[in-house]
């Protein structure tokens, strides 16, 4: 098992990746990792996730209250959104929130990513629904995502960004990459006259593949 310091170091590394890939601007984005039922590490507010060192990372309880934070650092106000996911999804061990360019463009246009256009996205995500806009930092955001948590591991936040969660920080981050790749393909295909959709019977075959693979997480085709 990883030590707390190793997890903090991993959070800094993922922060650099998210920042360097342009998935956030300036101090945007936040992520968290579950240590136990009442202990979670989370990124601080007001700092670039691309330049973090382990002492930046804060610790909160399941209510989002601060357990540990070095001077000058406090948890993101979006930690409420993370806590709702951990509450409803005991299988989830990490949450990533970012503003990747293409996925966020779809969120701003009010368009969910639900069309089956490529096998990998159908198998891994099954779609990315759009949660109704909520004011950041309020309970409107956790309330808006709750209805999707049973069936999806990725959600677009209307007029805001994207949210992914999984059984590890790396997998939650990979999901964010997959969401952004899917959004970018949809956008570029639109430039070429529109995406061709995979026919329903072929989508069902991909769902069957997903069921056979016993992939962790939730998916509309697997309850
Ligand atoms: Zn945000």
UniProtKB/TrEMBL annotation:
- Would the keyword Manganese turn up in this protein's UniProt record? no
Q: Which domain of life is it from?
A: Bacteria
Gene3D superfamilies assigned to the protein according to its UniProt record, in alphabetical order = Class II aldolase/adducin N-terminal domain (3.40.225.10)
Instruction: Give the record's GO biological process terms.
Output: pentose catabolic process
Q: Report keywords, A-Z.
A: Lyase, Metal-binding
Q: GO terms for molecular function, please? A: aldehyde-lyase activity; metal ion binding
InterPro entries found in the cross-reference section: Aldolase_class_II_sugar_metab, Aldolase_II/adducin_N, Aldolase_II/adducin_N_sf
Q: Does the record carry Mitochondrion as a key word?
A: no
Pfam families registered for this protein in UniProt: Aldolase_II (PF00596)
A GO cellular component annotated for this chain's UniProt record is:
cytosol
SMART domains per the UniProt record, alphabetical: Aldolase_II (SM01007)
Q: Where is the Class II aldolase/adducin N-terminal domain?
A: 9-187
Recorded protein name is Class II aldolase/adducin family protein
What is the originating organism of this protein? Merdimonas faecis
